[in-house]
Write a structure and sequence with these properties.
Helix content is about 30%, strand content about 30%. It has about 650 residues and is of the alpha+beta class. The protein folds into 5 domains: about 200 residues, no CATH class; about 110 residues; about 35 residues, no CATH class; about 150 residues, Rossmann fold, CATH 3.40.50; about 90 residues, Ribonuclease H-like superfamily/Ribonuclease H (Nucleotidyltransferase, domain 5, 2-Layer Sandwich). Helix 9 packs across helix 13, helix 10 packs parallel to helix 11 and helix 14 packs parallel to helix 15. The radius of gyration is 30 Å and the shape is globular.
Length: about 650
């Protein structure tokens, strides 16, 4: 069996790194405090900035302890946090750090210190810039430019424990899109307005970093004053003094009356910057360069190796050198056995050679599953008649290409699922000719639904893109519609109008009457889209499963958790995928769940599953999408141990 090449590059001289650390007991920081995790993170972050050293909190049975590099003399005895002060009492001094010992506490210290050691030399490298602490590093020369936008190539690197147990640097390729032209050198309050809230790269001499523009200053760069140890100086002079020489051309040629914008640094402090040194950041959806950043594996591998060779093989921090291998760690290849699938009428499909099942190779699995869904002797695992269905459409769509779209969608659903007795949704239209904002469109949809007598049913809601939706922002309108309809016992899914607008065109019948037809060059694409809507928005929303697992999962119940925009979603899946249930809760936090929330929600879910199975649960898996916060883990683990 062949090995697999990772993107982890081992550190070669760990035995040469002679580092020591001091340990402080953190008093008055307890897990029973509501702000425990918030304060723990704030202590780590704020003290790191204050000391300009890596610090971290480690958990021991008798409470939290703070780890600081040895010989740091200015560690404060007390530190202010949210609604409390903590006391830092030194309990251990000069403990040698062994980078070859593997346990959770030592690993966290090793990785924190290594990450700091590699950050400083990369930050000083004049060929690189970093948007903010903890993010990747990018080369200052754009790799390509078009339409006034430059794509900057870079890399992210973090210290990790490699599969072999060694410490290495995990390296990946990143891209950043920046406008080649800066903001106008001279702005007024009126011309500033479009740029408020804009993220920019501030080219502070040779040091570049990302900021978010907050406000406009009435003073220019010669009038804006900066306090220094030698007294106040103008922003104009301050930047020139602080920047390494020779000065970059755009700073050297900056006019004395250039405009000033204001932003906040990572400590929340108010800062000033000349507008002419700020270059707007572009989102991936705003430019045509992003396609070039989607790399084939072999090209990504070559670029990772180049970044390691040019920037990471010999990193020096003061008298400490970190030497990184040019060759990545290799691991033994392990195969994942694909489970068997069961379709309708007891038809089973197997990649693993199960007796009595239809056999298929791994590369033909996808096509074979589609074929079985269309096979009259197999088909969907769930074979039930359609219950009440609604199709909620914008009025402008229904009065134009909507009837043709509905007919095409009905045909796509019936072709996939003839057992349903025919997809015949009730059509509801909502007024969409006003402003297409989140508020106006959401209000129109809810008013249209409220005017009808609604019974428990399933629905597909077509939405227009809202004009006030920010780039990369989650679709708030879709989330709101699904949530509000759920309150009325309507289980809804959402699709959007763009595909239909691009795919249908006005034509004339033989008798001259107008009608809509599918554009010839869009037919294949639209048919694929309609099949996806039929499967994902109609059939799966109705809990009509195309197949289930004939090879059961290891756990009796799998619980998936995700939190977005203060809504917590819990999805509960049974052992073979036949039982799927969703729970939605409102959260006070945007992303993180508090201990009491997790305890309450999981207790309800596990209780429901005990009733469904008629016995206590023996095995539960919890999967957290995105970052799993410590407050969530602290609640889930003891709850699972007693379930």
């Amino acid at each position: 069996m062949t090995d697999i090449e990772t993107n982890i590059f081992p550190i070669l001289n760990l035995n040469d790194l002679k580092l020591r650390y001091d340990t402080y007991r953190v008093r008055n920081l307890r897990r029973d405090q509501d702000e425990y995790f918030q304060n723990r993170d704030a202590l780590t972050r704020d003290l790191s900035y204050k000391l300009k050293m890596p610090v971290l909190i480690i958990e021991r049975p008798d409470g939290p302890y703070l780890v600081v590099p040895g010989d740091v003399a200015n560690v404060p005895q007390t530190f202010p946090l949210v609604r409390t002060y903590v006391h830092l009492d030194k309990v251990e001094s000069g403990t040698p750090l062994d980078f070859n010992v593997r346990n959770s506490e030592n690993d966290s210290i090793c990785l924190r210190f290594i990450q700091f050691l590699i950050q400083a030399p990369l930050f000083r490298n004049n060929r690189l810039w970093q948007p903010s602490s903890g993010m990747g590093f990018f080369e200052k020369t754009p790799f390509e430019q078009t339409n006034g936008i430059g794509r900057y190539r870079g890399f992210g690197t973090r210290a990790v424990i490699a599969p072999s147990g060694r410490i290495g640097l995990c390296v990946d390729v990143h891209s950043k899109y920046i406008r080649t032209a800066s903001l106008p050198v001279r702005l007024s309050r009126l011309t500033f307005r479009p740029f408020q809230g804009q993220r920019c790269v501030y080219r502070y001499g040779h040091q570049w970093y990302e900021i978010r523009i907050e406000t406009f200053s009435d003073l220019n760069v010669s009038e804006e004053q900066i306090r220094t140890a030698d007294g106040p100086v103008s922003l104009f002079e301050f930047i020139a003094r602080a920047s390494r020489k020779p000065l970059p051309a755009e700073l050297a040629s900056l006019p004395h009356d250039a405009s000033v914008i204001r932003y906040r640094n990572n400590r929340g402090e108010d800062r000033a910057a000349p507008s002419g040194l700020c270059h707007p950041v572009c989102d991936t959806q705003e430019n045509a360069l992003h396609q070039g950043a989607i790399l084939s594996p072999h090209i990504r591998r070559e670029q990772v190796r180049r970044f390691v060779s040019e920037y990471l093989t010999d990193l020096r921090f003061n008298q400490i050198a970190v030497r990184v291998s040019r060759e990545p760690e290799r691991i033994e290849q392990k195969l994942f056995r694909v489970p068997d699938f069961e379709f309708g009428n007891g038809c089973k499909l197997s990649v693993r050679g199960t007796t009595g099942a239809s056999q298929v190779s791994l590369d033909a699995l996808g096509r074979k599953r589609i074929d079985l869904l269309r096979d009259a002797h197999a088909g969907f695992y769930v074979k039930e008649r359609f219950r009440r269905q609604y199709l909620i459409l914008p009025q402008s769509v229904w009065e134009s290409w909507g009837e043709r779209f509905v007919a095409d969608l009905k045909q796509a659903v019936d072709n996939l699922f003839p057992e349903g007795g025919g997809y015949k949704p009730d059509i509801i239209t909502y007024k969409d000719r006003g402003p297409r904002t989140y508020r106006d469109q959401g209000k129109a949809i809810l008013e249209a639904v409220g005017d009808r007598f609604m019974e428990s049913a399933y629905a597909v809601v077509m939405l227009h893109p809202t004009t006030d939706r920010k780039v990369r922002e989650h679709d708030l309108l879709a989330a709101m519609v699904i949530r509000e309809l759920r309150k009325n016992d309507i289980f809804a899914a959402v699709n959007h109008s763009e595909m239909g607008e691009h795919s249908y065109v006005m034509a004339s019948a033989r008798d001259g009457t107008p009608r809509y037809e599918i554009k010839k060059n869009q037919r294949s694409r639209l048919m694929g889209y309609l099949r996806n809507v039929a499967l994902n928005k109609v059939l799966l929303t109705n809990n009509f499963w195309p197949f289930v697992l004939a090879t059961p999962l290891h756990a009796e119940v799998t619980i998936g958790i995700d939190v977005k925009n203060q809504t917590a979603g819990f999805t509960v899946i049974g052992q073979n995928g036949l039982s799927v249930k969703s729970y939605c809760y409102t959260s006070r936090q945007k992303e993180k769940l508090l201990k009491a929330q997790v305890l309450t929600h999981l207790a309800e879910i596990i209780s429901d599953e005990k009733i469904r199975l008629g016995r206590p649960l023996k095995s539960i898996v919890i999967h957290r999408d995105g970052r799993c916060f410590q407050s969530e883990m602290d609640t889930a683990l003891p709850l699972l141990s007693t379930s």
